[in-house]
Each structure stands twice: as C-alpha cells, then as structure tokens.
Amino acid sequence: MAKCPICGHAWTYRQKVLGYALKPRTRTKCPACRAYIEPSTASIIFDYMAIIALAALVFAGIPLMHLPVTTSVMLTGALILIYILVIIPLTVRFKQYDYNIKTPG
Prior knowledge:
Layout: H1 13-21, E1 28-29, E2 36-39, H2 41-64, H3 69-91, E3 94-95
Antiparallel strand pairs: 1-2, 2-3
Helix pairs in contact: 1-3, 2-3
C-alpha cells in the first residue's frame, strides 16, 4: 500500500488512480499533508518492466495472433487500461528524496 513518507497517510485506490496514475508527472502532492512526494526507485523499475511487457505484447504478441483490426485495437486498449488501472496503482510506493541542492553565495 502506498503511504506518504512524511505524514504516513495511506493512499486509497481512488487517490492512487486519480492523483498519481492519470497525471503525467514525476512527483505528486500528498492529499493529507500537501507535501510533494515522488515514486520510489523500486516503483519506477516495476513501471518500466510493465511498460516493456506491454510494448512487447502490443508490438509483437498481438500482430502474431493475426486477429482482425478491431479485435487487435480493443485488446490493445484493454491492455493499456489494465496497466493504468491495475499495475500502476498496485505497485506505486512513495519516497521523499533529499537532493542536497546548494544555494549560491
């Protein structure tokens, strides 16, 4: 379960889908404490593995099945929905990173 590393707020499934999975950014705000948090390195690795598997299915698996075009498009859409609504929300973990940014002067 995804928790905020600052306040310990446990994100619900709906918050993970609407607040993280559907927004194309690298960091997001915690709904409880409003602090910016980022996905952990393990979350990013799982995300890349899922994207590679999805791309392999869409670009290699589906064409090898020799399905009609409408079926192929529907299957591709279903795979993308599974990725957005299942894979991302169930694998995301958050972490607060300290970048040690030095101020000039």
